[in-house]
Design a protein that fits this description.
The complex is a heterodimer.
Chain A lengths: L3 E10 L2 E11 L4 E5 L6 H8 L7 E6 L2 E2 L8 E4 L11 H12 L4 H10 L15 H13 L5 E5 L7 H16 L3 E6 L2 H7 L2 E6 L2 E7 H6 L5 E8 L2 H10 L4 E5 L2 E7 L3 H10 L4 E6 L4 H11 L5
Parallel strand pairs in A: 3-8, 3-9, 6-7, 7-8
Antiparallel strand pairs in A: 1-2, 1-4, 4-5, 9-10, 11-13, 11-14, 12-13
Chain B lengths: L1 H16 L3 H27 L10 H10 L1 H10 L8 H19 L3 H7 L3 H34 L11 H29 L2 H25 L7 H8 L3 H9 L1 H11 L2 H7 L5 H9 L14 H25 L4
Helix pairs in contact in B: 1-7, 2-3, 2-7, 3-4, 4-7, 4-8, 5-7, 5-8, 5-9, 7-8, 8-9, 8-12, 8-15, 11-15, 12-15, 13-14
The chains are: A alpha/beta, B mainly alpha.
Chain lengths: 303, 324
């Protein structure tokens, strides 16, 4: 039985359709990335799963219970930017949430504060918190009642690299304890480092649902990025222009070219034939971004 | 029921942490008895033995009615109803802004309703918490007044006498009447999705409706007798129905608080007494200010109908509306 199930979810706002017959099954303990550009319908879907908005058609189930229903008591959420009562301390905000949940001991508040490395900031009022502290407190609140399901919407939004890495580690630790996590993001690099399964949506429809590696592999024209450095940078640039290869300058003398994997040997041969002495050829690797953009192009979106 | 209890506890916890809550209480609990006692002292010093107090009993009676423990407790109930907008409306509107409007302005609904998915429990938990706070404010006002009156007995010729049972009943009735106002303010603030606009609407929509109704009634009036009206007439409900819009925030809401006002004014009439004043007042344009010909059971019925209507509407909207 899936822990999170969306069955033909539709959400319309007037004539606009934000989510269009979306189906989704997520099993216990999975850590799933929910991908999509801004306005794709990620947040609307998460809000429907959390019981905050009603679907125009279809229904969602959490832990076998139809939403809204008893299943929501086992869900932790952080939807969009986490919000708090600014006049209360972080600890009091958690205590308020704990009271609403019921049966959350005070010791659990200390545990979650420690888990997100906020044990020394719990007594401060939330209005004095930085963006990163608010994000971490939001995660702490989502974990407060030991949920079985976590619905997270852009949890690393606005964080610096250190904060992003910390949240990532926290989520991995949570998933390792058997919590099912659905995490949305439009930052592909983040999803790539975090999850094993990806659900990509656009215009409210699911474009792809499966393991991350399959999303990359399924693109026939597998895109790679090659970084080239030549003894004579001008010669390299004019050769790339002559070959009509799109390229970007990395720094003085080095260029980055994006092309399909099969075209790489031919490019190197042609550069050699044009008298370009290559000092370095480095493949930067296929990436999620290339696969994802190709996916969007397939769907007819200019990407 | 368990969910409701959880929400009430959480909301009261939040209210206690909100320092602004204490400002209103301070104004009511401290300032009102203080001003009244200063007035009483000025009266005692300047009027005792003057031509206004020839019999030597008038000022004593006024001081007993105004500044004794019982008198101050009566003032603490009566005074706030005569402000415009009434102190009761201010308190309830600010509470509704804190409990309902704040969730929207701080984007907290998405957190609250996930932590406690029962929307019925969340809504009614907040209403119960608001009513509890209103009850505490009323009780605090009474207690601080009694305390101030007791202290004042050291320099004023007053004692503990008075109709304490009747006054306690009026306090209780006023608290119950405020349920309709609490639901009304919550409904408006929830509907307009803006705290400031919600508070302003709570202050000014009822007088506006009452004004429009008065104009409509004066120009058109109710249709003549038909079967429905005849039925209402027979049940003596027609007048109540007619009076719903006219007397929403005036006579019915304030009746428990304004009812003893005639007794207070009666004190200044000396031997004529409050009964005479009450009779005189009922024949003047000021009649509605002091409750007019309304009775407390009638006012209770009107407010109960309003509470049911607002409560139902608010519940339906709250349970069905999407949380953005």
């Amino acid at each position: 039985m899936p822990v999170i199930a969306a069955n033909g979810l539709v959400k319309r706002y007037g004539r606009a359709t934000a989510v269009d017959r979306l189906n989704l099954d997520i099993e216990r303990g999975e850590l799933v990335g929910f991908l999509g550009p801004n306005g794709a319908g990620k947040t609307t879907t998460l809000r429907m799963l959390a019981g905050l908005i009603r679907p125009s058609a279809g229904h969602a189930e959490i832990l076998g219970h139809r939403v809204p229903g008893a299943g929501l008591r086992r869900v932790g959420t952080m939807i969009e930017e986490p919000s708090f009562y600014p006049y209360m301390s972080g600890r009091d905000n958690l205590r308020y949430a704990a009271m609403l949940h019921g049966s959350v001991p005070d010791s659990r508040i200390d545990e979650v504060l420690e888990f997100v490395r906020m044990e020394n900031a719990g007594a401060k009022r939330v209005r004095a918190y930085s963006q990163g502290m608010r994000q971490r407190l939001g995660l702490a609140r989502a974990l407060l009642h030991r949920p079985d399901v976590l619905l997270l919407d852009e949890p690393t939004n606005g964080l610096d690299p250190v904060g992003i890495a910390e949240i990532r580690e926290n989520l991995r630790a949570v998933a390792a304890e058997g919590v099912t996590v659905l995490v949305s993001s439009h930052i592909l690099a983040e999803i790539e480092k975090l999850v094993g399964r990806v659900v990509a949506i656009e215009r409210g429809r699911v474009l792809f649902d499966g393991p991350l590696h399959r999303l990359i592999d399924r693109i026939d024209e597998r895109l790679v990025t090659v970084r080239l450095e030549a003894a004579d940078p001008d010669a390299l640039r004019s050769a790339l222009q002559g070959l009509k290869r799109e390229h970007t300058a990395v720094d003085a003398g080095r260029y980055r070219v994006r092309l399909s994997e099969a075209e790489v040997p031919a490019l190197l041969r042609e550069l050699q034939e044009r008298g370009v002495d290559l000092l370095e050829v480095r493949r930067e690797g296929e990436d999620l971004e290339g696969a994802y953009l190709a996916l969007l192009r397939e769907d007819g979106r200019p990407a | 029921m368990k969910a409701l209890t959880l929400v009430v506890r959480a909301e009261l916890f939040k209210a206690v942490r909100k320092r602004r809550s204490y400002v209103l209480a301070g104004l009511w609990w401290i300032l009102l008895p203080l001003v009244t006692l200063i007035l009483a002292r000025v009266l005692q010093v300047n009027v005792t033995g003057s031509f206004l107090d020839e019999a030597g009993t008038t000022v004593t009676a006024i001081l007993q009615g105004l500044a004794s423990p019982f008198g101050l407790a009566r003032v603490a109930l009566t005074g706030p109803a005569f402000l415009n907008p009434s102190y009761f409306v201010i308190v309830v509107a600010l509470l509704a802004a804190a409990f309902i409007g704040e969730e929207k302005s701080l984007s907290m609904w998405k957190t609250t309703l996930v932590a406690q998915p029962s929307r019925l429990a969340v809504l009614w938990g907040k209403i119960v918490a608001m009513m509890a706070i209103v009850g505490v404010l009323l009780l605090g006002a009474a207690l601080s007044a009694v305390l101030a009156g007791t202290l004042a007995m050291s320099f004023l010729p007053t004692d503990f006498s008075g109709d304490w049972g009747g006054l306690a009943g009026l306090y209780l009735q006023q608290w119950a009447h405020l349920l309709a106002l609490t639901l009304f303010a919550s409904l408006l603030i929830f509907l307009v999705r803006n705290v400031a606009l919600g508070i302003v609407t709570t202050f000014f929509l009822p007088p506006l409706l009452e004004g429009l109704y008065a104009v409509w009634r004066a120009t058109v009036g109710f249709e003549p007798l038909n079967r429905v009206n005849a039925l209402f007439q027979a049940l003596e409900l027609k007048r109540t129905m007619e009076n719903l819009p006219r007397w929403f925030f005036t006579d019915n809401l304030y009746l428990p608080a304004r009812s003893p006002a005639t007794d207070l004014i009666g004190l200044f009439a000396g031997d004529a007494g409050s009964a005479e004043i009450r009779r005189e007042l009922s024949q003047t344009p000021l009649a509605s200010l002091f409750g007019g010909s309304l009775t407390l059971p009638h006012a209770g019925l009107v407010m109960a109908i309003y509470a049911a209507a607002f409560g139902l509407l608010l519940t339906v909207l709250f349970v069905r509306r999407d949380v953005e």
